[in-house]
Design goal:
With 301 residues, the protein is of the alpha/beta class. The chain has twelve helices and eight strands. The chain has two domains: 160 residues, Rossmann fold (3-Layer(aba) Sandwich), CATH 3.40.50.720; 121 residues, N-(1-d-carboxylethyl)-l-norvaline Dehydrogenase, domain 2 (Orthogonal Bundle), CATH 1.10.1040.10. Bound molecules: NADP nicotinamide-adenine-dinucleotide phosphate (NAP).
């Protein structure tokens, strides 16, 4: 990569909210941007802003050394690029190219994709962008990356425009591992918020009377567990002194949440799963330990 960073042509494949936000950010950063999307009309505003709409996926990857993929999952990448390389006229279409896949999938799927891309002669970097579309390109945006360090390093200035890049290592599965682990916290938190809201609205309480206060319960969690280092130390040591919040006490509350949900006639799968963690921890002899002892039964399942 010899040209100034903001002159490097970039192709973006996949123009959902995230792909459009990334393409916009790259255009604003001065990059020549080529886009392709299965539904071409989603490119209209980008084309008006200066992007080039490639007529085919083959033309899209040919336009730039660097292609960023922003798709629902990795299967979509195979659906788009598979037919390109299977066409004898384009067999070398990916040779020498750099693919940065910012789509969600499992670590194993992203490892297999790296192997597939390498067979096509391409370099493959996996990534997970951790903010919603409106935050792409803002100071709050960050993304996990893994794959070949030299390739990541060469394109790091371009990727930095999208969000703060956090390189995790050469194993291509690492970025999706971190992405899915963060989203595990996020999605479970969102479901718990909706479940709790259903609990109070079933009793006739308006959501607006509940939700602002409920959010403080979420923000109180860091105040309770600190910045994560002490919790990490506890979990790694297997030491769960139960002087403040025992598994038995918390398990009783988990049971009360489940029974309140049953009485309200709302979905009970989430509180059933939470109660099961406490039941198993207590059955394993952790009743007098801290709630962190649930980790022992969760990781051993
Ligand atoms: N949205 C968010 O807040 C957010 C935040 C962080 C990360 N992410 C991740 O970023 C990725 C993109 O998110 P998004 O919200 O932009 O996703 P999206 O709205 O689901 O858009 C997905 C894109 O994939 C394309 N696509 C899906 N299946 C395809 C197939 N079989 N063949 C060809 N194209 C296919 C869609 O094309 P069409 O337009 O033709 O349907 C669209 O361009 C996802 O992996 C998501 O998990 C999203």
């Amino acid at each position: 990569m010899t040209a100034a960073s903001n002159q490097i042509p970039v192709t973006v494949i996949g123009l959902g909210p995230m792909g459009r936000a990334m393409a916009n950010t790259l255009l604003t950063g001065g990059h020549p941007v080529t886009v392709w999307n299965r539904t071409p009309s989603r490119a209209d505003e980008l084309v008006a802003a200066g992007a080039t709409l490639a007529p085919t996926p083959a033309a899209a990857v040919a336009a730039s050394e660097l292609t960023i993929l922003s798709l629902t999952d990795y299967q979509a990448m195979y659906d788009i690029l598979g037919p390109v390389v299977e066409d004898p006229r384009n067999a070398d279409a990916l040779a020498g190219k750099v693919l940065v896949n910012l789509s969600s999938d499992t670590p194993d799927v992203s490892r297999d994709a790296a192997t597939w891309a390498t067979k096509q002669g391409a370099s493959f970097v996996t990534g997970g962008l951790m903010v919603p579309a409106p935050a792409v390109g803002t100071p709050s945006a960050y993304a996990f990356y893994s794959g070949p360090k030299d390739v990541f390093g060469a394109y790091e200035p371009v990727l930095r425009l999208i969000g703060e890049p956090k390189y995790l290592g050469a194993d291509p599965g690492l970025a999706q591992l971190f992405y899915q682990a963060h989203l595990d916290v996020f999605l479970t938190g969102l479901s718990s918020l909706l479940h709790a809201t259903a609990l109070v609205t079933a009793a006739g309480v308006p959501a607006a009377e509940f939700l602002p206060g409920a959010l403080t319960t979420l923000t109180d969690i860091p105040a309770m567990i600190g910045d994560g280092h002490e919790l990490a130390r506890q979990l790694e040591s297997g030491d769960h002194p139960g002087h403040l919040s025992t598994a038995t006490m918390m398990g009783a509350t988990a049971d009360h949440i489940l029974r309140t949900s049953q009485q309200a006639g709302i979905d009970v799968e989430l509180p059933t799963a939470v109660k099961a963690h406490y039941d198993r921890a207590i059955a394993a002899g952790h009743g007098a330990d801290n709630w962190t002892a649930l980790y022992e039964v969760i990781k051993a399942h």
